[in-house]
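## Example record

The block below lists the input lines for one assembly entry, exactly as stored, with component labels intact.
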Amino acid sequence: MLLKVPDVLTADEVRHACGLLGNAPWNDGRVSAGSQAVLVKNNEQLPHACDVARELRSMVMGALDRQLTFFSACLPKRVLAPQFNRYSGRSNHYGDHVDGAVRYQPDSGQKVRADLSCTLFLTDPWAYEGGELVIHDTPEAQRFKLPAGHLLMYPANRVHQVTPVTRGERLACFFWVESMVRSDAQRQLLFYMDMALLRLRSAQGESAESVALTGTYHNLLRMWADT
Ligand code: NI
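Predicted structure tokens for the full assembly:
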């Protein structure tokens, strides 16, 4: 399921992040690419251990904690430590590739299965040319360039690319989520049901029916969740 989550970061948080990233020790993004991706990857990434990355990771994780929609859509079991990238100048694109299915937490070495890919945009679309996130979904590719502070979540098994940035720079945060519910179809069903229950409760208050349907939601989650 593809989902846009607006306003994950406040305008102040975006400004703070961009200020810090302006003076950060960027690395060639190819150092972390697999053998297929390295052939098409041409961007910059922040080293995991630097102070800026550490501060911004905790800011992003705190922001995600406030997002009930994100939680309901992802049903996260593990979130891989958020990373940061920059597309500008001659390091300006990332051609078609797939993300590796199993990744490792940099600090603990713990394995994380990448069920969902997330991009949190840090630069507003008017500030750069190009730099679209293109996701090859059926029946055709979808192109995204979201406002700063907004997040795009999409299934991690899609071929995707970032088109060349031809003016300005594009800053973003990206990370993967291992979900308690492995199946995209089951996760989507739970998300739609949860959102419908929220609307039902806000329109009609709590009722015997909403309690029964909430029970059904949790029974499905019990059946499908791996904690
Ligand atoms: Ni990717």
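The CA atoms of residues 18 and 122 lie 7 Å apart. The pocket of nickel (II) ion is lined by residues 97, 99, 160 (CB under 6 Å).
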